[in-house]
Amino acid sequence: MSRAKKIIISGGGTGGHIYPAVAIANEIMAQMPNAEILFVGAQGKMEMEKVPKAGYHIIGLPIAGFNRSNMLANLSFPFKLIKSIGLARKTVKNFKPDIAIGVGGYASGPTLLMANMLGIKSLIQEQNSYAGVTNKYLSKKASKICVAYPDMSQFFPKEKIVFTGNPVRQDIISIQTSKKEALKHFGLDSDKKTLLVIGGSQGALSVNKGIEAGIQKLQDSGLQIIWQTGKTFIEKAKEATKSYSGSYVSDFIYEMDKAYAAADIVISRAGALSVSELCLTKKPSILVPFPNAAEDHQTMNALSLVNKNAAIMVKDSDVSELLISTCLELAQNEKKQLELASNITEFAKPNAAKEIVAEVKRIMES
Length: 366
Hints:
Layout: E1 6-10, H1 15-31, E2 36-42, H2 47-53, E3 57-61, H3 77-95, E4 99-102, H4 108-117, E5 121-126, H5 133-138, E6 144-147, E7 161-163, H6 170-173, H7 179-185, E8 194-198, H8 205-213, H9 215-220, E9 224-228, H10 234-240, E10 247-250, H11 256-262, E11 265-268, H12 272-281, E12 285-287, H13 297-306, E13 312-313, H14 319-331, H15 334-344, H16 352-365
Parallel strand pairs: 1-2, 1-4, 2-3, 4-5, 5-6, 6-7, 8-9, 8-11, 9-10, 11-12, 12-13
């Protein structure tokens, strides 16, 4: 009887890193029920809460990102990095994994670096269309790099790349709710077109302000709205929509499968996970990339779709001027909606987690 496999999964910082990591872990357990999984994250980041909630053990490193806007805040960076590398080395030596998986985020750097130095094989899962500095460096030693976008050989060795897509929650992959049931859930009319506005779990201030300013125009056009605002904007959004009968406003939508099922058009940031969900749900989308994302990767994510006529992009700086008019134009153009929905489907990879785990198993067996 073969020994149960041990696997380290490292990274996090945002939902865009954590949810794919948990999806990979869940798929590993589905295929290898005896496997032992250890997560390595960054202290104080959301993975320290989300990963244990998903049922996995996690160790936190004191690592933090490099602060480009406040150079004084970086004085402690070298010390945190050295301490994190030491703790990562100790963790890898003690756990003795068969493979280390890096999903991006602060903690993946020290963990995979130490795994590679200790002769442990590694796999990288790159969620974005523009690879970060850490993953580019780690790719030199990685056995495979699982990517979510085509044409990634400008960042990674071509022979190591596998186009798997990003792992997405199962309820999004196979939406069980009909459009009629979903609209009823949100208290909306089944005869009207519905706009879904999502800015990630934290909300998106520029998008929220743009919607608030254009709420009368949206109402006058006959569009209904499902609006996820984030905690900081919820009261303003409620005030803006108090006389808007066709509206559902919430700081956080837990049943996103229903929200997608109800939507005809979506306005969203262009984080890796959001884009993957839009591809799988085949939604005509207006993407507003967050301009301060590392290496401006959200703009790159959006452009990879825009260049294939699979989405429309509005720059964050143009939101107040263009967002509402672009939305109303799309709502009135059925042909464009069908084109976008058809073209975005080409990016959909519903079996991403299975394909990534297949690569993990191949590496461990080789």
